[in-house]
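Why show two proteins at once? Because comparison is the fastest way to build intuition. When a single record is shown, students tend to memorize it. When two are placed side by side, the eye starts asking what differs. So, the first record is below.
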Amino acid sequence: MPSSWSSSLRFELQFTGENINLWGEKLNAALVHADYAIAGWLTKALSGHTTLTTANAGADEARAAMIRFTGGEGPFTVTIPPVSKAYLIWNACAGPVTLATGAPGTVTLDSGDIAWVATDGGAVKTPGYGGLSIKDYVAAAGFSQVELPAQLANDGKYLKTDGANATWQAPVAADLADYASAIQGLQVALAVAL
């Protein structure tokens, strides 16, 4: 019976008694692939939608533990293999990158995002709570406590609250009336601390 391949990382699985006098070479190749799957970085330049490469016993992009995508504004879709795997993804593109396996359930990372993603061979997910990604959960939890007024047409204004209501206000001199004494108080506090 010939060797076979592991389903997720495509390592060569030796059949008993096969590859006599070659086992060291075969084992070293598998260990190099294991090292890349656990701690390897791939930098992948995107200029359009793409699929990560896979190869039994050979070098492949999808085996990498961590991937940094670079490129233009996109948006880009990157298809990963439909097998169980976790990745650390850094979107260094100027626009969003969506990770998909071809099955329902994708993850979209905004420019600059760094996130863990995982797939069970179908849906792609990020860690989170209540069905939301951590990013969406924090945004929902943080802003569910505060009702902010609309930002549209409020350029150059600041948010002011009276303890119960928040409103956008244009800066006025009265808002800065205690600025000099506040700065002096900070200077005294700093001098005492030193």
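Second record. Ask yourself what differs from the first in the token line.
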Amino acid sequence: MNDSGMTPRKVNNGTILVSCLVFVGAMLGAAYASVPLYRLFCQVTGYNGTTQRVEQYSETVLNQTMRVTFDANTSNGLNWAFKPVDRSVEPKIGETVQINYTATNRSPVATTGTAVFNVTPMEAGAYFNKVQCFCFTETTLQPGETLEMPVVFFVDPEIVKAEETRNIKTITLSYTFYPSQGAKPVAGLQDKIEDSAKKL
């Protein structure tokens, strides 16, 4: 303690406040960045069964088939009947095919949903290429409305060359529809962080 007896404590409190504000700012930045960065990482690497989005069809078609099965789910907050039209297809590897899902809004009001997706086994995600998919945009259904939603895809022929995927014979494409929210989850997190900062 020096002659004033209070200076060290004031400096320490100021340092703590600045540190907390820096930490809050860093957490806010991470909250904004984490979701898109993780999504980008998954799309580039196929991690966690994330499929690839492409703009063109495959130029190579092998004389070898891959069985592809389809799964459909909805979260508790979305009163939709959602299912694939066909449970499975068996295209040639590299062949571009279209399959369809249907969704029916069973609620008395218009609702909007967003689909998330993955494939299993997860190693196949990097080789499952989607040219067209309803999962790229939000889907709004009026009360009682039924919508047929196409998915256009192909399995990259490179799947037969990689050590970890060359023995895969069946791929499952799975979708889950969630209700779209007006407020983004990150925005809600931002409000909580700002409230915490005001209390410091």
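One difference worth noting in the second protein: The chain has two domains: 7-38+184-199, 51-179.
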